[in-house]
Amino acid sequence: MRHVEDGELMFGWNGQFLRVNLTKQKATVEKYDAQMARKFLGGRGFAIKILWDELKIGVDPLSPENLLVLAAGPLTGFALPSSGKLVVAAKSPLTGGYGDGNIGTHAAVHMRKAGYDAVIIEGKAEKPTVLLIQDATTEFLDAKELWGLNTFETEDKLRSLYGPTAGILSIGQGGENLVKFANIISQKGRGGGRPGMGAVMGSKNLKAIVILGSGELPAANPKELKALGAEAYREILTKPNYAFWKRQGTMMTIEWSQENSVLPTYNYSEGVFEDADAIGGFSMEKIKFTQRGCPNCNMICGNTVKDSDRKDSELDYENVAMLGSNIGVGDLKKVATLNRLADEFGLDTISLGNVIGFAMEASEKGLIKEKISWGDYKASRTLIEDIAYKRGLGGMLAEGVKFAAEKIGENASRFAVQVKGLEVSAYDCHAAPAMALSYATSAIGAHHKDAWVISWEVKVGRDRYSEEKVDKVIELQRIRGGFFECATACRLPWVELGFELEWYPKFLHAATGIEMSWEELNTIADRMYTLIRAFWVREYGKKWNREMDFPPAKWFETQLSKGNLKGAKLDRAKYEVMLKTYYKKRGWDERGIPTKTTLEKLGLKDEAKQLKKRVELWE
Fold first, then answer.
1. Are 321 and 426 in contact (CB under 8 A)?
2. Quick check: 435 and 454 in contact, CB under 8 A?
3. pLDDT digit string, tens, across residues 317-355
């Protein structure tokens, strides 16, 4: 239990942040008030509020002035299903807008037990540094011996010092060399921060963060929370899909995507892959030897195999689709090797598979001098290392697919599969307008995390461009990108097993003592989502336009040539209508900018004034 500035007792939340200045090598504890907790809940909500309040407009994402925020929510760390999650956020060096990622890690639990709901990291260390947080003590350790090591080597060395369950976040050579889609790695397979959070760490000379906490989390009703948690864990075990989930995890999605013509193939040119069976969930089962999971999870999904180098590689759907079918590699052990190399170098596997696929198509079209053909495993492996070290073609691809396409020129932007500079994740949308809208309006650029609407869309019909689909995208953005990202807990029990949403207000009440309905939680989600949109507009200024909410040109301009949806492509005029409907329902204007009325209605009056000043510059 913590006292906060306004005198109100706080439960569930610790009521304090840790601010770390790397330049001054100083750490201070800051209290925040109950209103902050009520309005933004935690996690992504805290992250965007901190970044909005503290970053000056136009700050260079790779400068010391950018902030790296590690944020958790009021459910994080309690003995509740899949509560070991952490949001890592900053202004993105890849997109220039709001960037974040969600990572399952012991660091989330330890940070909360150390007494902090967020760690705010500013400045730049003079030399490579490890940030060590042990309860109330913060130290800045020399990382000279770690700089240049990959994430697995770094974690091994740190774990030998701080123990098997220490919270460790690190970057590899990708982050050190400021690759724009470098991410943060934990536990040799958990990755987070697709829009370059690893590069932000690298720009600060921050090689790793180690967190050890030993305190008790302050629950309003500890006995009730413990009983609810135990009951919830038992409930998950009873779900019909549990046994199959334990066997395959997200890898089951390879077969599903192939069946429904959404498996990204040859740089999203097709939705089916001739070797899909060879890289799917059943093939994975044959070579799987163990599983790994996040803290506090009883439906672990990190399927671990021996790759073609006989080394451990943790597989899930996204990395196999992007480093398999999307680049034409149909050997699962080889895909696993590419995935493991990405994790070691600290490169986001989704963006990595996307830029390699782009390079293969550019090579096929004769737009680059390098010869790299579809399915060329050896060339792909070499290119991954070249990206991590920014050598040759890899140096250009390290800036992201949008930059690479602009650099190449000609028609390369027509087949660069990205939104707002973030590479699209592993679902082809030639025939999925709702999922295309989800990608186009995601909070960070093209990512499935906010609204994985495609499974629902397949059931209700692919060819419709309806108001119902817009409603579903917003509903899922509120739950997935909103509640779960702020709470902060994993959405997979609900998504994959049907664990009922009604559990979560009960968890929140037992943890915080506050009754929160789903209507109130949706309002928090809308507030957070709208503030993130305001951040994008504030940063882009005159460059902002509604084209930034359009999916990749390829889905409008080329047809699928294979599978049961042969001939399909998106209809631009019909998509326009959906986007206009989306804006109206969000309370945003025809440019996709939140209106003053909407901001004030969501309790963002001061933010509305700041945005108005910025928008007036170009009205």
1. yes
2. yes
3. 999 999 999 999 999 999 999 999 999 999 999 999 999
Question: What are the b/e assignments for 159-168, b being 16+ CB within 10 Å?
Answer: beebeeebbb
- Closest-CA residue to 574 (of 595, 555, 597, 587): 555
Mean pLDDT value of segment 210-236: 97
Write down the domain spans for the chain: 2-212, 248-418
Q: How far apart are CA 82 and CA 296, in angstroms?
A: 5
Candidate CATH numbers 1.10.472.10, 2.120.10.90, 1.10.569.10, 1.10.150.80; the one for domain 248-418: 1.10.569.10
Could you tell me if 593 and 537 are in contact, meaning their C-beta atoms sit under 8 angstroms apart?
yes
Determine how many CB atoms are found less than 10 A away from the CB of residue 34.
18
Q: C-alpha distances in angstroms, 75 versus 167, 215, 382?
A: 17, 15, 42
For residue 434, give both structure tokens.
């709702």
Residue identified by tokens 């009703």 is 221
Residue 359's alpha-carbon distances to 328, 369, 407, 525, in angstroms, are 12, 10, 12, 37
3-state DSSP of 218-241: CCCCHHHHHHHHHHHHHHHHCCCC
3-state SS class at 483:
helix
Select from 167, 201, 151 the least CA-distant residue to 341: 151
Tally the residues of the chain: 619
CB 382 within 8 A of CB 388: no
Distance CA 157, CA 145 (A): 10
Local structure of residue 388 (DSSP, 8 states): H
pLDDT digits (tens, 9 = 90+) for 595-606: 999 999 999 999
What 8-state DSSP symbol labels residue 520?
H
Cβ partners under 8 Å of residue 336, min gap 6: 305, 306, 307, 308, 313, 315
Structure tokens at 443: 């909070």
Q: What string of DSSP letters covers 254-302?
A: HHHHHHTT-S-BTTTTBS--TTHHHHSHHHHHHHEEEEE--TT-SS--E
Question: Could you tell me whether strands 68-71 and 85-91 are parallel, antiparallel, or unpaired per DSSP bridges?
Answer: antiparallel
Edge to edge, the sheet with strand 98-104 lists 26-31, 16-21, 118-122, 68-71, 85-91, 98-104
Beta-carbon contacts of residue 141 (< 8 Å; ≥ 6 apart): 129, 130, 131, 132
Helix (H/G/I), strand (E/B), else coil: 42: coil
pLDDT, tens digit, 9 for 90 and up, residues 92-102: 999 999 999 99
Q: What CATH superfamily classification does 2-212 receive? A: Aldehyde ferredoxin oxidoreductase, N-terminal domain (3.60.9.10)
The gap from C-alpha 196 to its chain's centroid, in whole angstroms, comes to 10
Q: What is the pLDDT of residue 2?
A: 46
Tokens standing for residue 540: 């882009």
* 490-512 pLDDT, tens digit each: 999 999 999 999 999 999 999 99
